[in-house]
């Protein structure tokens, strides 16, 4: 039998969405591997139930003696629809509960708070010297277990970094806990997995898994105020303060201490802007500032399409210096 072309296209299209950055089959985290270990028995269990019921039904009906339809029907319902699924589902339930317990009981070396907001992520690292604020990018040390404290400041969101581990709802007024133990370095994709409003589909983030020493150095750098070279850019900084950016954004070491939007103190050290949407670059920053609402419909940050080119140059240079 030839499969229609549109089914092939749908299959290929579906698989194309499974790039390694967003795939739980990437095996980048110990928790993701636990889920993978759970997935195969579940898949095999489901296929076993389906196959057994189908085979039994076909064979039994073909070989049925005259007048025995009702008896065979009862047997199929009892064994295929009752006993067999009960046994398989009970086994899968026990496996699932054991996996949940294994994921919840890991002792953690680091605590990171992630607050979801429409439509970005506030990230706060707990360190012995105090809290370190960041946004839209979560850095984790390789081989260490990090406890994520997940909550929301507005509506229900859901935290999901598929390559590293499971997904968990982020609910206003409640803190949900999840652990992640990365086993591969790299940049992994994350996204909001609960519809949360206009820009839900553009609410993304990156998880950067680093060697523990590099992570420690990065965390110290992230806790510092903005780079002195950026603070010396007087024109760019004063435009940032005067154009209204500072009302929503914080740049530590300046008078900008807005809390409505992401902390930008070390923006230029991040891989992406707009909550995971665009790669960080001079051109993309300009596009973001002038066409914010086109790039991310529904976003709370206004566009500045009429900003004079020289001012745009100065603000972009200032932001790109925030390393
Ligand atoms: Cu936040 Cu969907």
Main features:
Immunoglobulin-like; metal-binding; respiratory chain; 3 domains; membrane; five-stranded mixed beta sheet; elongated; 42% helix; 12 strands; 323 residues; Cytochrome aa3 subunit 2; binds dinuclear copper ion; alpha+beta
Description:
It is found in: Membrane. Keywords: Copper, Electron transport, Heme, Iron, Membrane, Metal-binding, Respiratory chain, Transmembrane, Transmembrane helix, Transport. Residues 107-221 form the Cytochrome oxidase subunit II copper A binding domain. Residues 231-323 form the Cytochrome c domain. The protein is built from ten helices and twelve strands. Helix 8 packs across helix 10. The strands form three sheets. It has a five-stranded mixed β-sheet with strand order 3-2-1-5-8. Strands 4-10-9-6-7 form a five-stranded mixed β-sheet, with helices on one face. Strands 11-12 form a two-stranded antiparallel sheet. With 323 residues, the chain is an alpha+beta fold. It folds into three domains: 9-104, no CATH class; 110-211, Cupredoxins -  blue copper proteins (Immunoglobulin-like), CATH 2.60.40.420; 228-320, Cupredoxins -  blue copper proteins (Immunoglobulin-like), CATH 2.60.40. The structure holds dinuclear copper ion. Dinuclear copper ion is lined by residues 116, 119, 157, 192, 194-196, 200, 203.
């Amino acid at each position: 039998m030839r499969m229609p072309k549109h089914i092939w296209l749908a299959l290929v299209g579906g698989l194309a969405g499974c790039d390694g950055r967003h795939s739980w089959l990437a095996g980048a985290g110990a928790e993701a591997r636990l889920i993978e270990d759970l997935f195969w028995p579940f898949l095999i269990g489901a296929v076993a139930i389906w196959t057994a019921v189908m085979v039994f039904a076909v064979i039994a009906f073909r070989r049925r003696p005259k007048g025995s339809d009702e008896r065979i029907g009862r047997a199929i319902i009892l064994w295929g629809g009752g006993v067999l699924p009960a046994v398989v589902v009970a086994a899968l339930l026990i496996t699932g509960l054991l996996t949940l317990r294994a994921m919840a009981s890991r002792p953690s070396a680091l605590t990171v708070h992630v607050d979801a907001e429409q439509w970005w992520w506030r990230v706060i690292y707990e360190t012995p010297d105090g809290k370190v604020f960041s946004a839209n990018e979560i850095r984790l040390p390789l081989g260490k277990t990090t406890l994520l404290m997940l909550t929301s400041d507005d509506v229900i969101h859901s935290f999901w970094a598929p390559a590293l581990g499971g997904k968990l709802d982020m609910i206003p007024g409640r803190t949900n806990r999840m652990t992640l133990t990365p086993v591969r370095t790299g940049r992994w994709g994350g996204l909001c997995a609960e519809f949360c409003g206009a820009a839900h589909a553009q609410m993304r983030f990156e998880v950067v898994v680093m060697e523990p020493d590099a992570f420690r150095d990065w965390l110290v750098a992230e806790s510092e105020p903005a780079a002195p070279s950026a603070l010396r850019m007087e024109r760019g900084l004063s435009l940032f303060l005067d154009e209204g950016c500072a009302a929503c954004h914080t740049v530590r070491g300046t008078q900008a201490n807005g809390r409505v939007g992401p902390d930008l103190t070390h923006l230029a050290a991040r891989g992406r802007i707009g909550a995971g949407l665009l790669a960080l670059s001079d051109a993309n920053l300009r596009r973001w500032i002038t066409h914010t609402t086109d790039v991310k419909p529904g976003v709370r940050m206004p566009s500045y399409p009429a900003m004079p080119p020289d001012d745009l140059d100065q603000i972009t240079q200032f932001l790109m210096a925030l390393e």
